[in-house]
Design a protein that fits this description.
The chain is mainly β and 148 residues long. The chain is 5% helix and 38% strand. A 5-stranded antiparallel sheet has the order 6-5-4-7-8, covered by helices on one side.
Amino acid sequence: MSGGTGYLHPGLPKPVPAADGLDAPFWEGIAEGKLKLQRCRACGRWQWGPEWICHNCHSDDLVFEEVPPVGRIYSFERVWHPVHPALKNQGPYIVVLVEFPEHDQARMVGNLLGDPHQDVVIGDEVHAVFEHHQDEDPAFTLVQWQVA
């Protein structure tokens, strides 16, 4: 997908890396179509979202590593009342919490593509869809999800 066909409507802030650079490897990865989560080098645990220390052992020796862009629906919400004025004409839409069972159950939030009235089943496999917006300034990529 490219600009204009996705979920980011005019008036919404463009997603960019945090000013402190903590999540920059994630954004660089998705721009290349690669999903990266944080992993602790000290204990080997995976985590999301990006943090300066490990949630498990409190080490600060964390790296971003590529993982398969596949997960399972852990939870979802069908949004009927948009939370931002730029979304006033969009709804419903579905937001999913995607779990990565083989990566210490790390979880990531994203939109579920497709019919907003579709049946959503907890545990269904989903695949990441990298929605590139190269014509924007700055360019960015969104991670969306689609039922396998």
